[in-house]
Amino acid sequence: MRFTLRAIVAFLATLAALVFLCRRWSLKTVSRSTLRLASSMHVTDSQVQTVIHHHFPGREVVSSLRLAGGVINAVFRVAVTELPRAHVGDALSVPSAAGQPEVVVKFSNPSWQGDCKLRNELGAMRLVRRHTTVPMPRVLAASDEPRSNGVGLAYIVFSVAEGEPLKGALAELTAAQQNTVFSQWADASRQLRSIRLPGYGSLDTRVGTLTARHDDSEESSDAPVTLAPLAGNALCTGLGPFDRYGQYAGARVEQFLPLLPLASAHMGPRLRCWSQATAAGGRRYGGDEKLLSPVLIHHDVSIRNLLIVRGEGRIGVRLSSVLDWEFALAAPFDDEAAFEFMVEGLDGDVLERFWQAWRGAGLPMPDPRVKENSLVYQHTVTMAHLHLWGLPPKITAKLLDDAHNNIDTLLRHRNC
Question: What predicted TM-score, i.e. pTM, was given to this entire model?
Answer without folding.
Answer: 0.84
